Amino acid sequence: MYSLAQEIKPGGNIILEKDRDNVVTVSDSLSIAGQIIQQDTIKTDTVKKAPALLTDIVNYSAEDYMRLSVKENRMYLYDNAQITYDDMVITAGMIILDNEKKEIYAYGIPDSTGTYSQLPVFTQAQNTVKPDSIRFNFDTEKALIYNTRTEEGAFKVRGEITKRENDSVYFMKNVKFTTSTNEENPDYYFYARRIKFVPNKKIVTGLVNMYIADVPTPLGLPFAYFPLTDEQTSGFILPSFGNSNNRGYFLQNGGYYFAISDYVDLLALGDYYTNGSYGLRLQSSYAKRYSFRGNLNFRYENLLDSERGFPDFAQRTNYNIQWSHSQDSKANPNSRFSASVNLGSSDYYRESVNQANTGNFLNNSLNSTVSYSKTFPGEPQVNFSATATHSQNTNTKVINMTLPTVQTSVSRVYPFAPKLGAKKGLIENINFQYNFRGENRFVTTDSLFFKPEMFKDANFGAQHTIPVSTNFKLFKFLSVSANANYEENWVFKTYEKTYDQNLRREVIDTVSGFDSYRTYGFSTGIGTTIYGKVNFKKDSKIQALRHVIRPNISYNINPGFDQYYDQYTIFDEQDQTLTERVVDYSRFQGSLYGAPGRQFSSSIGLSINNTLEAKVRDKDSTATEPKKITLLNNFSMSTAYNLAGDSLKLSPIALRGSIPVIQNKLDINLAANLDLYALDNNNRRIDKLNINNGGSLFRFTSANVSFGYSFASTDFDKDTKNKDKQENDTFRNGGRPDDLFGKGTDLDGRFYDEEEDVFAKDGDESSNNTWYNYDIPWNLTLAYTMTYSNRTRESEITSHSIMFSGDVELSPKWVVGGSSGFDIKDGGFTYTQLRFQRDLDSWRMSFNWVPFSERSSWYFFIGIKSSILSDIKYDKRREPDRRL
Fold first, then answer.
1. What sign does the dihedral 768-771-775-779 (CA atoms) show?
2. Is the Cβ–Cβ distance between 233 and 868 less than 8 Å?
3. Residue by residue, what is the 3-state secondary structure of 432-487?
């Protein structure tokens, strides 16, 4: 016989055996040894069972204690408490699990100093909330969260009361959200009375106001929508507005962003001016991992000056196309496709109203290359490439284009080399190669670009080259090389010249059809390397000197190809008499590869290259080896003697070299020419040595000195290394990467290097808020050049200038800089840019000023750094007068 006890609450009823359900539920830990006899005659209960309170295992832990109150039906967890239920994790100083109400309460606890610590952290999936307290219901899975703090994308959201509707929707009251890094005291925030918050998707608000330094501003909206997705999504781009001096009010850089797929996107932007001018820009980036990546930009502008009907009215259109494509090296080891295109109107960068990159409009050329290459492995290996090139002079507006250039080459073949072992001697080193080059070349101008007239003047042909060479040692110390070259040129246009006596001018007739000519030549050279070394005493500052001399003697011979030259006769009438004059010409003059040389040439070349190095005692007392420095780097002297010439056989002596001033940092480059021949009274070279004409041994005819040097405060800090500057848009368009022409900016006026090292980042020592910063970061770039000319006794400096660019970080938040130059010869500053930048934590402010020249202009900008709120900005600019 078994008996069981049951606790009856006051006012409760005793459950009779006959009223019991056939399913027995036991909550006590005691086990029942036996089975209750079923008394109910109904075998199947039609009432559905209530769902279990918990649908998953609840794991809990705490460092201090875990207490179970049977009377309150609660569990208490204290000190670093944690509960894990399904995908939800709650950590807090104290957590209370109420089984009666099916709720969880989480609070912080005071630490030893009385500070409220161990605040609750509510994590579900990828969402994290940090409130002051949490109340969560297991049954409804709803929660009330007080003083919640969470971070979604670039936003930091803080709400007074948050109601969790489900795992994807939150309703919040009295909310502040900002992109400021200072969550407790942000420099700005948006205040909304009520919002709907969908993590990783959006924030939808009612009435919202913008506060700056806790001061409300008139900037407000009756409702607002903020996207919160890490993935790219399509959407509108809000334009910026302003006033132009010549075109009235404008809206710039407004449009739409198309998130086409994970591999490609498209940005469409436009400008409109109240005088009727407009612009259009299409930008697309594409990428496929381990395959390729690139971007394509198209820009078009229709610009109007003044108003229609006025005498100074003018209309012009400009366009620019840029395409950059690169292939991943892992995509295909034997073939490669790449593109770098920059073409368009020659005046685009000078006249465009929506770009300010100094390197673009100071550059006088546009260049493009699109190429495909493929290698066919084997023995011998065959290389094939097809290339389209474009070169455009923006001053003369002349365009040179090859469409396409096809090249094929076969790797070197050694017919007499042994199958095993190294090649030795004259015969075994004999090798030859085959190269083919076919071109279709156009020379045109802006106005005829890609018009039918451009293709009528196409010049095409092919060139075959077979070089044969060998090399060997002579007397163990001399290196000898010999080269012979055979070249065959195919052209499909030649030019016949005659003289029209009646019109008294030369007449050129174009002859279409296949024609060819062949040339060949031979060259050889012999050289060696001589080492000289001097050792000094061990206690001497200079331990040793080493001089390396590389003399070389070469010989070149090229026959004259008279068979490809013709003549025509000109009859000149002077004093009623006719004089006959014969003019020689080649029908290949003006063809794709020009005419072959007519003059026989045979010359000897002499050159000596010198390098002077020293080993000096290292200043570092711990160094075990002396330090090697270069005193003179590749200082060379070269000249030639023309054996086939009838006069002026000696070429000028060319001197080239560099002197290292600061090792691996500053080299002074030197170049000079010395002439042995004298000048006559008309300043023309004569076949008489200068020393025999009453002068010195040489005439100093020209010289050039130049150097470039970049240094910064980090150069004097042993614990810091310089960072290489990244290529920006200015550099890709042909500008300088060293900022000597000024820093490049994007369409929003942001300097391209602004996100790198200009401002101190949080966590850096320089970002501390101190009154005095003993370490002021700075950088400076210098470029100097001077050219001297004395070819015809002019003895003048033809060019003499210095350029400089630098930045100084006056404080952890302030950076000032400038780029300029000075023409020492003519006097006056070159293109000058002054720039000021201020880091306002969540905001950025910049001022870019060109104080003088025809490009005189300025641009002021202040706006929020975060890309999600980049449309909240104010900018003002004064554009340069494009008519200048």
1. positive
2. no
3. EEEEEEEEEEEEEEHHHCCCHHHHHCCEEEEEEEEEEEEEEEECCCEEEEEEEEEE
Please state whether 200 falls in left (phi above 0), alpha (psi between -120 and 50) or beta. left
Q: What digits encode the pLDDT tens for the residues 327-345?
A: 988 888 899 999 999 888 8
- pLDDT tens for 770-802 read 444 456 788 888 899 999 999 988 889 999 999
User: What residues does each domain of the chain span?
Assistant: 59-227, 234-332+349-354, 714-884
Question: pTM for the complete prediction?
Answer: 0.70
pLDDT of residue 709: 83
Structure tokens at 412: 């070197």
CB–CB of 62/87 below 8 Å? no
What mean pLDDT, rounded, does the chain reach? 82
Provide CB contacts within 8 A for 382, sequence distance 6+: 375, 376, 408, 409, 410, 411
DSSP 18: G
d(CA 377, CA 375): 6
Residues 6+ apart with CB under 8 A from 827: none
Are the CB atoms for 779 and 713 separated by under 8 Å?
yes
As beta bridge partners, residue 169 has 166
Residue 571 one-letter amino acid = F
Could you check whether the bond before residue 812 is cis, i.e. omega within 30 degrees of 0? no
Q: Identify the helix (H) or strand (E) that includes residue 640.
A: strand 627-642
Residue 314, classed as helix, strand or coil, is: strand
795 vs 800: CA distance, rounded Å: 14
Structure tokens belonging to residue 797: 């400096």
Q: What is the CATH number of domain 59-227?
A: 2.60.450.10
Encoded tokens for 235: 């959407």
Beta strands in 731-850 (DSSP E): 778-789, 796-808, 814-823, 833-840, 843-850
What size, in residues, is the chain?
Answer: 884
- Name residue 604's beta-bridge partners: 555, 641
Half-sphere exposure of 632 (CA within 13 A, CB side): 15
pLDDT digits (tens, 9 = 90+) for 367-398: 899 999 999 998 889 999 999 999 998 888 89
Shortest CA distance to 481 belongs to which of 388, 555, 415? 555
Q: Which helix (H) or strand (E) holds 60?
A: strand 58-61
Q: How many CB atoms lie within 10 A of CB 517?
A: 20
What local confidence, expressed as pLDDT, does residue 221 receive? 82
CA diameter of the chain: 159
pLDDT attached to residue 736 = 59
The amino acid sitting at 240 is S
Task: Give yes or no for a contact between 83 and 62, defined as CB atoms under 8 angstroms apart.
Answer: no
- The C-alpha atoms of residue 639 and residue 692 are separated, in whole angstroms, by 20
**Overall average pLDDT of the 211-225 stretch:** 85
2-11, 352-361, 539-548: range with lowest mean pLDDT: 2-11
Return all residues near 682 (Cβ < 8 A) that are at least 6 apart.
none
CA distances from 598 to 489, 561, 584 (A): 16, 5, 10
Residue 572 CB: number of other CB atoms within 10 A? 10
Q: What pLDDT sits at residue 29?
A: 37
Measured in degrees and rounded to the nearest 5, phi and psi for residue 573 equal: -100, 115
